[in-house]
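Page 47, continued from p. 46.
Same chain as before, 142 aa.
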Amino acid sequence: MGIIASFRYGPAPGSPTETRANVYIELTDAATGQPTNGDNVEVIYSITFRGEVTVHSVFIPGQKLLVEQNALIIENDAFGEIFERIYNIVSTGQVPAPAPAVALCDLVISSILVDHPESAPALPTRKSVSTRFQVICRCNTV
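Result:
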């Protein structure tokens, strides 16, 4: 199964000279286009701002991950110049193989062995009670 990683922006407070957003990486299934779990898939992305490029790596356990909160996306400086922060997905790692199937069985308690004498005398109206026992089980594979 292939995974496509993409950026999504959520609202965040800004000002007249700047635009801010919460930046998420969302994962979708390449075959269906539906959101999918990443199962800790590695996503490498870059950010370009004012000519400087930085590269980052994250592991995404679910369908999306907040990578920057209240990030400066567009800035208008005092000279009227506009700077935009550009996010790019560099690569998406391989999806880990699914966990092996759990063996199904019908658990049966076949016997209980009492192997320890009572630790305190019982009340006159009760029989002695053991404080330690062993349960023997077997699993019938289905």
